[in-house]
Specification:
The longest helix is centred in the N-terminal third of the chain and has 14 residues. The radius of gyration is 20 Å and the shape is globular. 21% of the residues lie in helices and 26% in strands. The two termini are 16 Å apart. The protein has 340 residues and is of the alpha+beta class. Helix 6 packs across helix 7. A hairpin with a 5-residue loop joins strand 5 and strand 6. Bound molecules: pyridoxal-5'-phosphate (PLP) and 2-OXO-4-methylpentanoic acid (COI).
Length: 340
C-alpha cells in the first residue's frame, strides 16, 4: 500500500524511507551488500570523508508510468559516472552490476514511497560512496561504504515550472583542470556559501563562468544550461569542467531525434546570452527548469519567453522527456529500466 503522503505538495527535501542499501569495501573488495532499515552511520572521528571530503555521489529518479510500472531512467549512465567520480577521488570503483542491483533492490523495497503517476512527484535516488577508516596523513582511505537511499521529491525550484532568476557568480566553481567534471561532494561544499548569498539577495541560482577567462558560460551549482536561439537551435555549453549531465545528453537527443531541431554543443560566450530566445537549467532534480532572467551586476537579461511562462521549445523538450520517463512516449532503446 502506498504511504499516506500528500504527493501533490511535496518539496525537494529528505524524507526517511523504510530501506537503504549498504555495501562495505574492506581488504581490497566490495562485499555483496544488503538492505537495512538503519538510517544512521557510525564511524571514526578521523574518517577520511570527515577530514578530507573523500566522497562522491549520484542523483537519479524512479517514476510510476501511466500503466503503473515503476521505472528508472538510464541508470547505466549514473553507474558509469559514479565510476569516473570514484576514479578521480582514489575511491575503489563500484562495479556496474552491483550499482544497478543496488538501485533495483532499494527502489523495490521502497515501492510504497514511489509517488503515483500524475502527481508531479518522483522518487529521488541518492547513491554515494565515502572513505570510512581513520586517515590523518593526506592519503586515500582503505575502507569505504557504498550506500543508496531514496526519498520522494517534488520540484527542485519552488514554484515548480515558473521561470527563475539567476545571477552571474563572482565565485568560481571548478578549476580548468580540477574536479568540475565529477560528482564530488567537495564541488557542492564550495557552492554552499555562494548559494546562501544568492538566495539572500533574491536569486534562485548562480551561473558560473569559466574561471580562466570568465567569458564563457559553464553551469549552475546543480544543473547544466540549455539555450535556444531565435531560429530554434538548441545550444549547450561544452567544457571539461562541467558535470556531464545525463538529462542534458538525453534532451539533446530528444531535440534532434524527436523534435527535429538543430543542436549544438559548443563553447558559449556570456556575451551571446542576451541574444538567445529561451534558457533552461537541466538535471535530474531540475528536470528542465526555465530561466526567465539573468542578472550580471545590475545588467539584466530578460529572455523573450519572460517571467510568467516557459518558452515553447523548453516546454516541448520538457513534455517529451517527461513523457518518455512516464511511459506515455516511446523511449529510445535502453533508456528505461523496469523495476520488477
Ligand atoms: N550539474 C551539476 C553540478 C549537478 O549537480 C547536476 C545534477 O546531477 C547536473 C549538472 C545534472 O546532471 P544529471 O542530468 O545527470 O542529473
Ligand atoms: C541532481 O540533479 O541529481 C543533483 O544532484 C543536483 C543536486 C543539486 C540536488
Amino acid at each position: 500500500m502506498k504511504k499516506d503522503i500528500d504527493w501533490n505538495n511535496i518539496g525537494f527535501g529528505y524524507m526517511k524511507t523504510d530501506y537503504r542499501y549498504v555495501s562495505e569495501y574492506k581488504d581490497g573488495k566490495w562485499d555483496e551488500g544488503t538492505l537495512t532499515t538503519d538510517d544512521t552511520i557510525t564511524m571514526s572521528e578521523c574518517a577520511c570523508v570527515l577530514q578530507y571530503a573523500q566522497t562522491c555521489f549520484e542523483g537519479m529518479k524512479a517514476y510510476t508510468t501511466a500503466d503503473g510500472k515503476i521505472v528508472v531512467f538510464r541508470p547505466d549512465l549514473n553507474a558509469e559516472r559514479l565510476q569516473s567520480s570514484c576514479a578521480g577521488l582514489e575511491i575503489p570503483v563500484v562495479p556496474k552490476e552491483q550499482f544497478l542491483d543496488a538501485i533495483h533492490q532499494v527502489v523495490k523495497a521502497n515501492a510504497d514511497f514511489v509517488p503515483p503517476y500524475g502527481t508531479g512527484a518522483t522518487l529521488y535516488i541518492r547513491p554515494y560512496v565515502f572513505g570510512k577508516n581513520p586517515v590523518i596523513g593526506v592519503k586515500p582511505a582503505d575502507e569505504y561504504e557504498f550506500r543508496v537511499f531514496v526519498t520522494p521529491v517534488g520540484p527542485y525550484f519552488k514554484g515548480g515550472v515558473k521561470p527563475i532568476t539567476i545571477r552571474v557568480s563572482d565565485v568560481d566553481r571548478a578549476a580548468p583542470r580540477g574536479t568540475g567534471n565529477i560528482k564530488a561532494g567537495l564541488n557542492y561544499a564550495m557552492s554552499l556559501h555562494n548559494i546562501v548569498d544568492a538566495h539572500q539577495k533574491g536569486f534562485d541560482e548562480n551561473m558560473y563562468l569559466d574561471p580562466q577567462t570568465r567569458t564563457k558560460v559553464e553551469e549552475t551549482g546543480g544543473a547544466n544550461f540549455l539555450f535556444v536561439t531565435k531560429d530554434g537551435t538548441v545550444v549547450t555549453p561544452k567544457s571539461n569542467s562541467i558535470l556531464p549531465s545525463i538529462t542534458r545528453r538525453s534532451l539533446l537527443y530528444v531535440a534532434e531525434h524527436y523534435l527535429g531541431l538543430k543542436v549544438e554543443e559548443r563553447e558559449v560566450y556570456f556575451d551571446e546570452v542576451k541574444d538567445f530566445a529561451e534558457c533552461g537549467l537541466c538535471g535530474t532534480a531540475a528536470v528542465i527548469s526555465p530561466v526567465g532572467k539573468i542578472v550580471d551586476h545590475g545588467n539584466e537579461i530578460v529572455f523573450p519567453s519572460g517571467m510568467e511562462e516557459m518558452g515553447p521549445v523548453i516546454s516541448k523538450l520538457r513534455e517529451t522527456l517527461t513523457g518518455i520517463q512516464m511511459g506515455t512516449i516511446e523511449a529510445p532503446e535502453g533508456w528505461i529500466e523496469v523495476i520488477e
